[in-house]
Amino acid sequence: MEVVVTKRDITIKDVAKTANVSVATVSRVINGLDRVSEATRKKVLKVIDELNFVPNTIAASMVNKKTNMLAVVVPEIQNPFYTAVIGGTVEVAKKAGFVTLVVSTNGDEAEESTYFESFLGKNADGFILIGTHKTADFYQTIRKPTILVDRYIDNSGHDGVMIDNYRGAYEATKHFLEYGHTRIAIIDGKHDFNDGKDRYWGYQRAMVEGGVSPDPKYHKQGSWLEDSGYQSTLELMQAEVPPTAIFAANNLICQGAIKAIRDLNLEIGEDISLIGFDENELAEFVKPKVTVVRRPTREMGTQAAEMLIKRIKDKKTDETNPKKVILDVELMKYGSVKKMN
To answer: What pTM, to 2 d.p., does this model score?
Structure first.
């Protein structure tokens, strides 16, 4: 018997009835899921085309409990590092048919918790998270597929995409040592997460291996923001015995250091040697160009999105053996490190 559909709004039920399949089968075809034979898939797609059916994503999500929405949760969106991670995520998500919602926690644990307890936590299919919480307890409450980016918490039960922070800091410090520097300062922030800890220990290890005892007065620990980099650099360079080299442990600290050096009427690569961690606009355009530890920032977002979408489609997580991807870094040597006599 031929099924006739009138010219009212076509629904997913109309498609299912015309194709003589279940609504769930139509939903699986629309969302590109497995467990549908090729013959059935072609039949459903043919009916969709004939009826000129436009899928209602809200209705579809009610059937299969999927919204095709990924949430990217970051501490803030002004840092170019975070925006690059977001860009890589959006690129992959769009190709896979997912929309991306970006939210900022302002670095506040309570705000981060609220997001996961509200609409976002209930409706997103999965999360890419640069977290603010410092212990595993919070992350263990997230029951949907989640990829932790940059900041990884052991025993969280989730996959992670990171870079080799330790090696980056080690290579930067070693480069100073190879150029004859021994008064090498490091400016960083609190060691709440693996990234800060690993950079500090990479610096320490290179110093010790180079036969130089790290001097506590050359370690300035404030925040990971530009103002802290600026103030710390002023204090270091105005000390009775200033360092000859500064390792700025993130992009914003490096920007602050560059501004402070400029305001002190000093010349990078002559009066003070400088290496930054992660590229930034000031490091790119000052003369001489600042040597930096380059990390594959956008790739962190693309890899995280690919891992997350696979987890979502597989409909499972491996909480006992989460996958950790560590991407390599590269020391880009320019003209900001002076060779000592």
So the answer is: 0.79
